[in-house]
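haha ok so turns out i had the wrong file open the whole time. this is the CORRECT one, sorry everyone. sequence first:
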Amino acid sequence: MLVIPGKNMKLIAIGISLACLSHGAFAEDQATPSPTPVFRNHLARPGSPRRMEQASRQRALATDSQSQAQTRQQKKAERRSTAAVKAQERQAARAREKAQREVTAQNRAESRSANPRPTSDLMSRMGFSEQEIAAQKAREQSGKSGAKETPLSTPAPR
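then structure:
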């Protein structure tokens, strides 16, 4: 055997590179949209048990992904419906508060414009005795007549 120094190493390097790159060379024949190589014998032969397992796994993955998608859609629909219900509740609460504010404003306006009732009338509605009501009326009458008779007093100059 003839040994040439340096040539033997080149032959070994070429052999290793051909062995490593030969499988990729077969994969390069087919066009793919991604840089990942596609190998020719990736799938098992039709009708083999391995092919049946692959098909059942793919069906299981497809049904699993569909069920997950359906649950996501259901959760999304539930969130939307609860958000809509909450929005309606907030609107109803706002409408009730607004109506209550309007009623209180009307009551205040009516109470401002209404003539003040004498204390004796209120006492009769509240259930005081006739003597107490009569005494209160007398005080009210004396207060009205006393207010009309007294002139405004001015301080005396010093």
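Confidence is low (pLDDT under 50) at residues 149-153.
again sry for the mixup
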